[in-house]
Fold this protein.
Amino acid sequence: MDKKILSAAGFFGMTGILLGAFGAHGLKAVLSVEALATFETGVKYQMYHALFLLFVGLHSPLTSTLRTLLFRLIVLGIILFSGSIYLLATKSLTGLELKILGPITPVGGLCFAVAWGVLMFSFLKKKA
């Protein structure tokens, strides 16, 4: 599982950098300031959680079950949270009506929060 987690960390880190550059250079002239800030929020959270995946993949005291749970929560969070933000921020360019994504973004955020909570409780459970 470590290879899968670390590969996902690399993928989300790489695409976060590419999307950040695209937002800063390619979208700057075509999006409003608010939409660009929204897009950048998606990039930030994707990068934070790419680093979280890197930690999960490299932190050997985590059990295999815990790693799998964290991996799933983080990947789902990136897809739902950052993915929906990217689509919502660029809807003026795509012309897509994406009202359904409004409720999806917080579900992704909840996945992130649950992943961090699971990690915290796993550390609190450990005997010193």
Remarks:
- The CA atoms of residues 12 and 79 lie 10 Å apart.
- Helices lie at 2-26, 33-58, 64-89, 91-94, 101-125.
- Residues 2-125 form one domain.
